[in-house]
Every structure is written in C-alpha cells, then in structure tokens.
C-alpha cells in the first residue's frame, strides 16, 4: 500500500487524537516497518488495519467510522497535493466518473507498483450515480470517506447508500450516490 496513505494516517491520528496516542499505537502494534513510513514507500496494508483497530480500542471510536474519517481527510490532502486533477473536473460526478480512466492512470505514473481498487461508474441521471468498488483489500469504508471528501470539496450534498455485492462487505460494494440538486 502506498506510503502516502500511511503518512496521512499518522497525521490524522496526531491531529485528532494527539501525539501521545500516536506514540502509544506505534509502541503497542507489532509493525514490520516499526512504524517508520515515508510518503514514497510501500507498506503492507495489514499494518494500516492493525493501527486502526488499535486506535479504535484506545479511542472507543468504531473502526468503520475511523476509516471513513480518514478517507475524507485524505481526499482533501490528495486534491491539495495535486490541484491539477480537480482543475480538470467540473463537479464531483465528473471526478467520480473518471477515477479509473484518468485519476488511477495518473497514480500509476507516479507509483507503478500501486495496487489500486477498481471503480466502475454509471451515471443514472444528473444527480444520481452508481459507483462499483472492487478491491483486494477491505477498505470500502475508506472509499466512502473519500466520497464524503469529494462532496465537501465540490460543496455538494450527497446521500450515499451502500450495498455489498459479496459476503465481504468491504471489498465489493455498490455505492448509490444521490446529489442534492444545485
């Protein structure tokens, strides 16, 4: 998994829960990387899961809520780090419809070893879209947080309903998104 995801999580933990909590997590988890992350590195996604589960234990915030919060925060950081992406898009649905055909193509240029999820997008109308998320990793809640961040960035209101396509509700999910009319 891309290092920028890990460094983003470290920042979130420190900003929202404090340095002491971050230090406690890094000390109490058995991390192969020893909790040393760089934005250009690549790390086992199990470490991210381990950190989030431990954070949930010490903060009493459910794992899915933490992962969703993290996705929302990371979206803002990604757009701030790559404003040219947003400049190409007229609204959130334009961006969502181009995840695999444009955004992930650009990610692969920077990180050829990245293992990204697959998104299939169907526009159902001016204010309705269906986004099919498929991944080897259990991060549908993270993807939902990214959707929240996208709506916030474009100053739009979304209603998101989520249904699983398989037994594992975190790896194969349909997001039905309705945007409030402008």
Keywords:
alpha+beta, 4 strands, globular, 182 residues, 4-stranded antiparallel β-sheet
Strand content: 15-25%
Specify the structural class: alpha+beta
Helix and strand succession? HHHHHHHEEHEE
Gyration radius, in Å: 16 Å
The tally of strands reads 4
Distance between the termini: 37 Å
**Strand order across the biggest sheet?**
1-2-4-3
How many H/I helical runs?
8
Show unreliable segments.
none
Largest sheet: 4 strands, antiparallel
**Average pLDDT reading:** 91
Outline, from the CA principal axes?
A: globular
Helix content: 40-55%
Description:
The protein is α+β, with helices and mostly antiparallel strands and 182 residues long. 52% of the residues lie in helices and 16% in strands. It has a four-stranded antiparallel sheet, covered by helices on one side. Helix 1 (3-17) crosses helix 2, helix 1 packs across helix 4 and helix 2 crosses helix 3 (45-59). The radius of gyration is 16 Å and the shape is globular. The mean pLDDT is 91.
């Amino acid at each position: 998994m891309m290092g920028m995801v890990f460094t983003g999580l470290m920042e979130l933990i420190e900003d929202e829960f404090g340095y002491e909590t971050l230090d406690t997590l890094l000390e109490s988890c058995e991390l192969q990387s020893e909790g040393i992350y760089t934005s250009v590195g690549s790390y086992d996604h199990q470490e991210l899961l381990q950190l989030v589960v431990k954070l949930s234990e010490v903060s009493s915030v459910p794992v899915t809520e933490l992962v969703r919060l993290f996705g929302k925060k990371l979206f803002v950081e990604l757009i701030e780090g790559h404003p040219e992406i947003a400049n190409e898009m007229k609204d959130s649905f334009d961006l969502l419809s181009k995840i695999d055909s444009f955004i992930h193509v650009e990610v692969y240029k920077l990180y050829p070893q990245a293992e990204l999820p697959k998104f299939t997008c169907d526009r159902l109308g001016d204010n309705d879209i269906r986004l099919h998320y498929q991944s080897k990793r259990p991060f549908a809640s993270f993807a939902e947080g990214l959707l929240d961040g996208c709506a916030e960035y474009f100053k739009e209101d979304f209603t998101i309903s989520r249904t699983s396509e398989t037994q594992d509700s975190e790896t194969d999910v349909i997001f039905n998104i309705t945007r409030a009319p402008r």
